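Section 5: illustrative case.
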């Protein structure tokens, strides 16, 4: 698996997660307000250690001024291909993004800035054709991030997800194509120049 380079945004450094990051990220990964909204309800450092180890290569650490403020899933994966087509046609065609910010650092736009940095890297450097992100529908800040990023809501699933404390709840999925990213950025470039 290729090691990802570090990526800088206006305020943040995004760098690949390493095993040394397990304990520092556990500080916020164990909080109720975090695990409530993540895909796995992890209850011990051992569990987090096992899960995080399996995510090396797909997790990025978000740093601000040298402090870890969160982490992001940044997983490149194959696109869906009809059986019988050349697997190379869909190889590495997509990235999935997911965000977690330490509540002590939330509300400052870090998740949006980090995700935008990774979308830029995915489309402009990796050359993927589609980015996706998923959330529980009640996770208003997460849904807001997807909208702020200019992603399109692609699905709303009614009570499809069994949540540990809330029972069957709704889900949402958002997507963005490389050409949509370029269109949006062409617009913002022409807007910035007053054109
Ligand atoms: C969701 C999370 C990543 C947000 O991080 P963040 O750095 O605070 O996000 P940002 O500041 O970039 O953007 C959050 C947006 O949601 C908005 N928001 C916050 N709480 C909200 C609420 N209850 N209802 C609606 N919008 C809300 C913010 O105002 C902001 O939008 P704005 O810029 O238009 O004002 C963070 O709270 C977190 O890690 N939560 C727990 C884990 C989690 O939910 N992970 C995502 C799983 S899909």
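Designed sequence:
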């Amino acid at each position: 698996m290729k090691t990802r380079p570090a990526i800088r945004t206006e305020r943040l450094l995004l760098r690949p997660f390493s095993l040394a990051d397990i304990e520092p990220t556990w500080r916020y990964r164990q909080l109720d307000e975090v695990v409530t909204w993540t895909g796995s309800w992890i209850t011990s450092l051992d569990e987090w250690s096992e899960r995080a180890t399996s995510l090396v290569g797909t997790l990025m650490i978000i740093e601000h001024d040298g402090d870890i403020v969160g982490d992001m899933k940044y997983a490149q994966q194959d696109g869906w291909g009809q059986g019988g087509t050349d697997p190379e046609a869909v190889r590495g065609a997509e990235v999935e993004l997911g965000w977690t910010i330490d509540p002590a650092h939330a509300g400052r736009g870090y998740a949006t800035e980090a995700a935008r940095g990774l979308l830029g890297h995915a489309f402009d450097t990796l050359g993927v054709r589609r980015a996706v992100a998923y959330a529980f529908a009640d996770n208003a800040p997460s849904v807001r991030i997807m909208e702020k990023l200019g992603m399109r809501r692609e699905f709303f699933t009614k009570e499809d997800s069994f949540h540990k404390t809330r029972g069957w709840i709704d889900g949402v999925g958002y997507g963005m194509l490389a050409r949509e990213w370029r269109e949006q950025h062409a617009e913002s470039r022409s807007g910035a120049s007053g054109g």
